[in-house]
Write a structure and sequence with these properties.
mainly alpha; globular
Length: 133
């Protein structure tokens, strides 16, 4: 089963989500190390704060404006919105492409493949969700 988050992240492949579901703090620590290397987190960031149980309004999100919008429209993700793709999600796609370009320089091929599936293929996943409507 695939779980597509509000912005198009795929929880099925997300290393944070997978480690959280398994209660695997060593894997979560490995994810933290990757996030630090990518510049997503400060090295002093506590490992337990890396836990993720999927998109929920109370979770800290990198794209709060998108989450608030989807919650207000009562859609699970942006692909379910009649206004998809709007400027908000287009901005997310643009930011995601920039992050992917930066990741190419610091990730192994295996890490990049995981990041593609989990985060960098947002548009692909949301386009699929939108066609299902």
């Amino acid at each position: 089963m695939t779980s597509i988050g509000t912005c198009g992240d795929n929880c099925t492949y997300c290393p944070r989500h997978i480690a959280t579901q398994k209660g695997d703090y060593q894997s979560l620590a490995d994810v933290k190390e990757l996030w630090v290397r990518l510049g997503f987190r400060d090295p002093r960031f506590p490992v337990q704060d890396m836990e993720c149980s999927g998109c929920k309004p109370e979770n800290h999100c990198a794209y709060p404006e998108v989450c608030d919008c989807a919650a207000g429209k009562k859609v699970d993700n942006c692909g379910g919105c009649v206004q998809y793709p709007c400027i908000k999600i287009k901005n997310v796609f643009e930011r995601t492409e920039k992050l992917r370009s930066e990741a190419i320089g610091v990730c192994t091929a295996e890490e990049l493949e995981m990041l593609d599936k989990a985060f960098f293929w947002k548009k692909r996943y949301l386009d699929q969700q939108n066609r299902k409507k």
